Amino acid sequence: MKRRIVGLRGRILAILLLVQLGGLGILMFFVSRNARESLSEMAYVSSQYLTRGYAADLERRLASAQDFASYLARSLQSLREAGLSRSEARLMPGVFLEANQGVQGAWAIFEPDAYDGRDAAFAGAPGYGPTGLFAPYWFREGEELSLRDYSAGRNGEAYQAAKRSGRSSAAIASDGAERSLTIAVPIASRGATIGVAGVELRMSAVTAALAGVRPFEGSVAYLVGADGLVVAHQDRSAEGRALSTSLQGDAPGAVSAAVREGRGHAQPTRRSADGAPVYLIVQPIRLGSGSQYWGLVVEVPIATILAPVARLTATLLAVAGAAFALLGAAIWLSVGSALKPLRLAAAAIRDIAEGDADLTREVSLKRDDEVGDLVDRKSVV
Q1: 8 Å CB contact between 75 and 195
Q2: CA distance linking residue 68 with residue 330, whole number of Å
């Protein structure tokens, strides 16, 4: 007798499992694809929403410093109009500084003779420069407040920008290893700018505020200027670098353009260091009352965004594998029970063919199906 390699049960099982495998594969493909698209879109939207919230919080912090500078400017102008002596008025930045612990320094510079017309009378006096310009600068020195002349500040970027535009401005200055952010507000009288008042914030405080900006695991946040240079970074060693050294493709130019225009931006790109794909989000942070902006940039690893999809795929595979095994076992058992009487009938027919059969013996099988009909016909024979 010819030996069978695969019996009927095995063939039936193979066919049904192949059909099931194909169906599950198609189902998993569409479910995974739709889940990837849906979850990715949700992650993109949520990351933009979270970044917008972080940017608003940072802007509020900087706005409070601008409010401080604006109040100082208005107060000094009011004191000037009230005829208060400069020896008393020059104490005002120190009073403001003492009341605002988050500020490192406060200053005011009036144009020559703009405060009381008596600059020459104070030329070379203690706490004044060689011209006697009204330019007090109060700053923190440990636990104490100190005062010095700030006449040289007239040449600074913050002073010049505020005086030229008539609006508040911001600039970063470096004092050795420590950098500071200066926010300057013009002092106006009868429509003319007669001086500038300003406050200084340590950039280390701004960097510390960035530490909490982590919308997703593994994300990186930093502040960038319109020139494409990193202003503040969670990794301080990256501060001062150009975006072109950390991002590939057109991303650096797109970020700089968005910051200059004060608008949000988002795009996928890759990091230059390791080529890892990231989702890049930019939200503008307005500095002062003019059109000067920084951009809060958040890099979210694409792998983090797609992690829920990977977990869903693994779950689907596990469920499909379990279903595949259960269905296979069920098919094996059900086909086996169906083939058992057929094997008995086949054995009886073989005995008849070989002449060894007991033709008086019946095969008793109570089945109301095709297998039962077949065995009954054999009994008739």
Answers
A1: no
A2: 77
Q: What is the mean pLDDT of the chain?
A: 82
CB 82 within 8 A of CB 247: no
pLDDT tens by residue, 48-91 = 888 889 999 888 888 888 889 999 999 999 999 999 999 899 99
Distance of CA 10 to the CA centre of its chain: 54
Helix runs in the chain, H state only: 8-81, 86-89, 92-99, 157-165, 203-210, 251-261, 302-305, 307-354, 370-380
Is the domain covering 64-204 a CATH 3.20.20.70 domain?
no
Residue 27 neighbours by CB distance under 10 Å = 12
* 3-class DSSP state of 213: coil
Whose structure tokens read 């420590």? 178
Q: Do 338 and 367 contact (CB within 8 A), yes or no?
A: no
CATH superfamily of 35-60+206-304: PAS domain (3.30.450.20)
HSE-CB of 13 using CA atoms within 13 angstroms: 20
Look up residue 219 and give its amino acid: S
Mean pLDDT of 202-210: 85
Which of the pair, 289 or 51, is modelled with greater confidence?
51
DSSP 8-state code for residue 294: E
